Amino acid sequence: MVGYLAAGAEIAAAVVIDGAIVRGSTSYVRQLFFRKQPLDATEGIRLLGRVLALDLGFTVASDILRTAVAPTH
Fold this sequence. Notes:
Strand content: under 5%
Mean pLDDT: 79
Number of strands: 0
Low-confidence stretches: none
Radius of gyration: 17 Å
Distance between the termini: 18 Å
Order of helices and strands: HH
Structural class: mainly alpha
């Protein structure tokens, strides 16, 4: 059961990163082509930092779950 939870945490981490890539890319393209004001990268960097922190949480949770099941590996 714990192995499935660890795999689920890894999948969640991948989904979070994929979502951040899509959201960041679309936001950049939208700002680049459809806005007349200069690009403001500060908010995008903050969003990326939050997403990476969430992804790191899922990855650490997965590692902890796998260590609880097989601590010798």
